[in-house]
Design a protein that fits this description.
Elements: H1 10-36, H2 40-68, H3 72-80, H4 86-119, H5 127-136, H6 138-156, H7 160-187, H8 192-200, H9 209-223, H10 229-234, H11 243-271, H12 282-291, H13 297-328, H14 335-354, H15 370-397, H16 400-407, H17 411-441
Helix pairs in contact: 1-7, 1-9, 1-11, 1-13, 2-3, 2-8, 2-9, 2-11, 2-15, 2-17, 3-4, 4-6, 4-13, 4-14, 4-15, 5-12, 6-13, 6-14, 7-11, 7-13, 8-11, 9-15, 9-17, 11-12, 13-14, 15-17
Keywords: Membrane, Transmembrane, Transmembrane helix, Transport
Main location: membrane
Pfam families: SNF (PF00209)
Amino acid sequence: MKQRDQWSSKIGFVLAAAGSSIGLGAIWKFPYMAGTNGGSVFVILFIISTFAIGLPILLAEFVVGRMGQADAVTALKRLALGRKWHLVGWLGLAMSFIILSFYSVIGGWILSYLARALFFKLDVAEHGKLFDLIIANPFEVLFAQAVFMLLSIWIVQSGIRGGIERASRWMMPLLFIFFIILAIRSLTLDGAMEGVRFLFVPDWSQLTGSTVLLALGQAFFSLSVGVTAMMTYASYLPKEERLGQSALNVSLLNIVISILAGLVIFPAVFALGQSPDEGPGLIFVILPAIFSQIPFGNVFMIIFFILMLFATLTSSIAMLEIVVSSGIRTKHDRRKRASWVFGLLIFIVGIPSALSFGILSDVRIFGGTIFDFADLLTSRIGMPLGALLISLFAGFILTKSQTDDELRMHPVMNSLWKFLVRFIAPVAIIIIFIVWIIELRS
């Protein structure tokens, strides 16, 4: 039987974990969520949620994953001593499946833009109409979604070192460098400071229970906590690596890239006289307009969408790895077959989300499209619920000696982490759930 794979180095693990978190969570979803939910107020809540709640739960997933040395379901079975905590692993598996089903749709949109940038000269003034045309075209969105899933399958089937780690090692540094360049250019546009103020000067009238919940959901979504992705990745980590520093690095990278994405988009939004509440299409409508202000703008546009594809893939392969890892369990020689089978199933489940802006646009669930419902089910319900259960498991089921042995931090930090995952994180999640339910009923 083939032995369980491992990361070749700490930096490989951190880049892969950061890739899972950074992806579209930071670059696509963070800007439009901030734009539609109060700008800087959302940013402040997001940072607080990341450090006070997201980081401790991320570390909890690292602890459970490395202790279990297996997929999430198997790891929780081993550590829970016959109790039903392995159902948390099944919840994470289901959420990963659903997330990737609509995430791959966005990956397809990126591929459509990239193909147009490569082979046609895009009319910047028509990007709003172009986005609407792309997402409403059933043949294009399904073909692009299929190509994106094929890329994800190809990487995951190659394993941890040969596929996921190798891809993350060169995709993530390129993404970071290019976003710095874009942010600098965006900040030099006339009127850009209005966007900076929107991003950093809070308007507390925008503070609502819904904004708090959405910021917390964004912290979960962007850190990939609550779906056992980080638990799965940590199961491939050698025992000598320190988990606390890795979790902090991943959290910091996630915040930095999110802020950089905001600095690319919002200064340009205000400089070009457009609205920050564009929604999910923000990067597809606004960013191309930025490139019209830059010499060789089409070349930069091609590079940007290639790197957007990189970012999307690093998150996609994390979601697919959760499903594949649970599917093969200890039979690691079946990775290739499992990657193709599960990848195909995810594509099929994602078809309604892909068509929800076109021929299925009249289908409404709780007032939103099928795509919107999949997003709501995962980021507002499934991920916070998973994070709550993982926090309780690490805080109350695992003993202090077990967690201290895995963390190997200063005793004060160990105790602080235990307090956060036992009390602060669960209480915060429960309160925000209650506030959201009250707002839904009002």
